[in-house]
Each structure stands twice: as C-alpha cells, then as structure tokens.
Amino acid sequence: MFPRIAGHALIGRDEELTRIAAVLDGVRPGRLTVLALEGPAGSGRTRLLDETARLARAGGRGFTVLAEPEWAGAVGSRQVLRTVGDQPGPLLFLGDHPRRVDPRAWAVLDLLAETTPTLVALTGPAEGARLRAADVHRVQVSPLSPAAQAEFVARLAGGRPDPLLMDLCRVAAGRPGALRELLAGLDEEGLVRLDGGWAVLRVSRLPRRTEAYLRGQVASVSAPARHLLQAAATVGVSFPLVRLARLMGVGPVTMLPALEEALESGLLGGDGELLAFGHDLVRAAVESTLPRPVAAALRPEAPRRSAPRRAPRRNASADWSRLSPREREVAELAGQGLTNQQIAHRTNISPHTVNFHLRQIFQKAGIGSRVELAAQWGRHAHEPYPKSQS
C-alpha cells in the first residue's frame, strides 16, 4: 500500500501558505477575523487547516488552538468563553465542517474577539456569521500544478511517474485527495509497478475504487448540478457553454448556480473558453450514471446500432470538440506531418504516449489513418476548436 504523506511538507502550496501566514500575523483584538479555505472536495483544505494550526503555534505567534467539537456548539462556545477568555495570547478556532457551527457560537466568538485576537479558520464559507467583508480572508485552494502533481505522485508511488501514469492522473484534476485515491486504487489492483526508479502504469484504466469515488461525487451534488454534469458528459471532453445550454434547453445565465456547483465538485473544469472534463475517463464515469437510453437520446450525433458501418466520407467533418487539450495538441502536430518522435520532442512526452493519444484521437474523431487526419485538419483548420491553445 502506498504510504501516507501527511507528515511531509506540503507540495505546491507556497502561495496558499504565504497568505495564511499573513492572515495569522494580522489578527488584532477588536473584531473577529475569519480565514476561509475554499476549494472542491479532495483539494487539500483539511491538510491546509492542519498546517494553519502548525503555523499558528510556530514562529513566536503563540496561538492557543481549539478544534471544532470544543467550540462549534452553543454550549461549547460559552464554555470556551469562560475558560480561555482570560488567557494571554491570540486564539485560533479550527472548523472542518463549517455548516455544523451553531449560529449562536458566532455571537460568543464576537464577544471574545473584542478583547482577544481571535481567528476562526474554516474549510468553507463562514455561514451564519455576520461579518464585514474585510474581516473574511478567502484563500482559494487551487489544483496542483503539473510539476507539483508529479512530485506528489512520486512520493506516493515511490518512483518517478511515467508519462502514461501522469496522463491517467489527469482524472484527479490536480486535487491531492483524488490523486491519493487513484494511486491507492491502482496499487490495490496491481496496475502500477516500480522499474528502475520509475512508477510504470501497466494498464491505462480506472481502478474500481476510483470509479466508485467518481460516481459518489456525482451523487453528492444537487439534482440540477448532477443533471448538468450528466448532460455535459454526453457532449464531449471539452465544449463551449453555449453548446451545453442548447442541449439542456436553457440560457447560460439560468445554468450558473448548477454550473458553479459542478465546477466546485472538481468533476468539470475550465480550459480557456471551453468547459472540460479532466480526462475522457472522468467523462465516461459521469456518463455511466445515466440510463443508457437517456445517454443515447442526449447524443443525437451517435450512430444507431442498426445502421451499417460505412467508410468515412471524403468530405466528412471530424468532431474535434471531443478531444482533450493534449489530444488537440497532438492532432495539430500530426496534422502537420510530424512523426511520433518529433511530436514527443515538441510536447515533452514519450513516443509511446504519443501513440496512445493518436489512438484516442482516431477513435473520438472517427478517423482511420494519419493521412486522413492530416487531410481533415487542413480542411477544417478554420473551425472553432481544432487548434491547440499552446
């Protein structure tokens, strides 16, 4: 089993830690201060909350730290007021479940903050608190950068991840918790092996626990957000918002609440002007939560089972919108006539990975050869999304 790395220094969180330290150093008596760590599930908010507590005790700051069960209820907060109100030094209250904080507890904390520097650090918004905007410091816990993801995976796997493994890790959308779940599942099913210091992916597929994790995320969002995700999964890996709005029969503005929740879930993200799933396997996992007849009805361009299979027409147009950003980059270079070796050099991936992407491109775009790819790309280069954003 892969080791836990919670005891190691945080990876790729220098910016967040700098902002957290600044908030700790700026707490003053007179009014309550709140630090809200915001991000999707699995983004590492709880780990950053633990690190906030460590920073509060270190560097001569001398905070007294209280965990959520001790203060979040109305009775507990009054007990805290009696026991810590006379203690010298600043106070830090940790809340990993902001919705469980009793609204009456905020009034007690306000009273405490009048004379004692008091900070409440939460893994989410400060619901129920009547605070001025200036007193709430929001830190967005963003996805890990590609380099930080590679370091994180290397520590978990015990070896440098090969390109195919890193490609599969796009399923996690840069979220440490999701990466840990994915690597644990790969390990359980023997899908990763160590070879000469490299962590090598044996088969590019999702482990069962990751499929269950993704289905659980779909089930955990509200019905409007779930319906949006499911409809999006039938459109493609990446697509413009207006295309999804047209499918759902609503205006883009009407979709905003559900879209924001879908983005917060981490299942759907943004790729420039397009919405995008982090990986086609994520899209497929979301689509699998739909009954098959419904999924088929939402994909009007899908061929019917009874229709005979025909060779692609010479002037048929490939659907480039189904390609991921990396696949569009590979398709562009292959369309220019570059070899796998040349594409690998340009994109800093292995020729084997290039071949894997080309197979995905052929399947999604309905293309049978590199010659056809070059012809299609040249003919339709003016369309909205054949060109990569590199």
Automatic annotation (TrEMBL):
Region annotation (Disordered) ranges: 299-326
UniProt GO MF annotations: DNA binding
Domain HTH luxR-type: residue ranges: 316-381
One matching Pfam family: GerE
BP term (GO), one: regulation of DNA-templated transcription
Keyword Nucleotidyltransferase: no
Alphabetized UniProt keyword annotations: DNA-binding, Transcription, Transcription regulation
InterPro entries named in the record: AAA_16, P-loop_NTPase, Sig_transdc_resp-reg_C-effctor, Tscrpt_reg_LuxR_C, WH-like_DNA-bd_sf
Entry-linked PROSITE patterns: HTH_LUXR_2 (PS50043)
UniProt name for this protein: DNA-binding CsgD family transcriptional regulator
Organism: Paractinoplanes abujensis
Taxon lineage: Bacteria, Bacillati, Actinomycetota, Actinomycetes, Micromonosporales
